Amino acid sequence: MSDRIDADFTGVESTMLITLYLRALETRSAEPVLNDPYAADLVDRIDVDFARLLPRGASGNRYTVAVRGRRFDDWAADFLARHPDAVVLHLGCGLDSRAFRLGPPPGVRWYDVDLPDVIALRDRLYPQRPEGYTALGASAAQPDWLAEIPADRPVLVVAEGLLMYLGEPDIRRLLGAVADRFPSGELLFDGFAPWVVGLTQRLAPLLDRRGLPHYTTATADGGVITRWDPRYRRLAAVPILDGLTRVSERGPRATYQALNAIPGFRNFYRLCRFAF
Ligand SMILES: C[S@@+](CC[C@H](N)C(=O)[O-])C[C@H]1O[C@@H](n2cnc3c(N)ncnc32)[C@H](O)[C@@H]1O
């Protein structure tokens, strides 16, 4: 009998298995951009046919997930070096090991937040509980749980692979609740252009058959965040292609360079950093 742990998810929760698998694949490549040994270990401990879960031809997305993870790790480390007593809200954390990869300063209070079933699985896979670390099963769309989080210090909100699955009212509610509660902070998120969101909506029947969700909201033009809540100002909105055109593997790099040269394509997906 296998002692691997079951992870029977569909819909938006299942997407965290795909990103985990992509990080594991990338970590096993010759020159990893991210290097996430936790992901490589977890895919061996979870009883899921990861290769089947991944849509055909999508293994190239390992570069995207790695470039995104690296960029967010660097921005987060920079914030924590300036605010070693910060609160971190890692929303839609899935099975990501960021808290363990970064090893935040001891004064940081780190909250890994995801939907309750995901956190229940996370608790089984990551039994370690470093000081200052909490895993919270709650929705980012109903942020009443923020009332339990210490609010006397700056906050870093990391929403990686999350906002595209939330509705606009949910994102507005979240932005408002965070900026109301904390004195200052930064928000890191990734966002797609409206045409990409529209494309996934047209592909919804196909995605549905695979138990996968389509995207709901476009935020690649980080400007919408400031329109929705003027307290947020943009620090950066970096096209993912900036990192992808530098990956070491020659074939994928040439593809990304060609895509980067197509007008209108460069900003299809951006990594954004905001402050309030
Ligand atoms: C694409 S995965 C990204 C997971 C992780 N950030 C990563 O990069 O591996 C999206 C995650 O968002 C979570 N999620 C979706 N809606 C959510 C909500 N309303 N509140 C909290 N988490 C949510 C899903 O359960 C899933 O773990």
TrEMBL record:
One of its GO terms (biological process) is methylation. GO terms for molecular function: methyltransferase activity. The lineage of its organism: Bacteria, Bacillati, Actinomycetota, Actinomycetes, Streptosporangiales. Keywords: Methyltransferase, Transferase. Its EC number is 2.1.1.-. Pfam families: LCM. This is Class I SAM-dependent methyltransferase. It comes from Streptomonospora mangrovi. PANTHER family: S-ADENOSYL-L-METHIONINE-DEPENDENT METHYLTRANSFERASE YKTD-RELATED, S-ADENOSYL-L-METHIONINE-DEPENDENT METHYLTRANSFERASES SUPERFAMILY PROTEIN.
